[in-house]
Amino acid sequence: MRTDPLLTVVSCEPAWLRGLRRFSKATTGVLPTLAVVFVSFATSVYAGEGPYVAIGGGVNLLNDADVTAQYAEPQFTPLDATSKTDTGYKVKGAVGWAFANGFRVEGEISYRKHNLDEMDVRSPGTFVLNAYDVWAEANNQPQGPDAYLAAAAANPELKNGLEQRTIAASPHPLTGDFQAVTFKVNAFYDIDLGFAWKPYVGGGIGLTKISVEVNSATTGTLLVDDDDTVFSYQVGGGVGYEFPLPEDRSITVSLDYRYFDAGEPTFTGYTSRRDFNASISGNYVGVGLRYGF
Predict the structure, then answer these.
(1) For 87, which DSSP code?
(2) Own/partner long-range contacts of 151-159 (Cβ < 8 Å, ≥24 apart)
(3) Are 113 and 61 in contact (CB under 8 A)?
(4) 8-state DSSP, 42
């Protein structure tokens, strides 16, 4: 499946600082009491070795994506744009092995999704085809990339006017979504502080299949419907609280953070039939549940 160069990706800042301040005041006397209870409960720490399974989920924030391309045809200026997505979500599952020295290795599969927001165009590239098709329809002229190339070569003023119109209309609203399925091998190290609260650090590498479907919210035109599989990595950490169970088993509840990067996958425009790249990276904050047995 393929579509026109627009892509995806961005992040929204959650607005919860005021509520956090109210929560902090309300729990001034409660938190110290809970801390005493947890520390008292956590004097015995599970440090077993063996397999585990884990699940998790949370908020995914994509960075603004740099969307770029160079073209052989001089009628297409280079594409230079930034695309944005709304705040999305991620769910994940893993199977691993925990060692008694604190190291863990695991295989993880995750899925994340974002809705598209807008694209800010600085140099239009094949994105100019949207403006051309609108002009061509109004003037009873043929539409499409081949018709644009012919018209732009014959009329440089038309070409320049359409490019400036495309830039001036930024940011262009988009619809559609960004989805990613990732398979990773991770390694983490749990830091034993002598009680049940255990910070951890680590990361992983793997492959990510990224699929994008992009439409112009203004014209409804399908711009991109394509996917690419790329190398990706993540680094991060968090803190877990371990509840010992009978028979050397345990349940760990964790607060997790990850920074992830999937490089610059390549997609093909649905109408333009030309390739472009989009940088994919961002941040994840969520909770996890790990069962060791």
Answers:
(1) -
(2) 152/75, 153/75, 159/75, 159/128
(3) no
(4) T
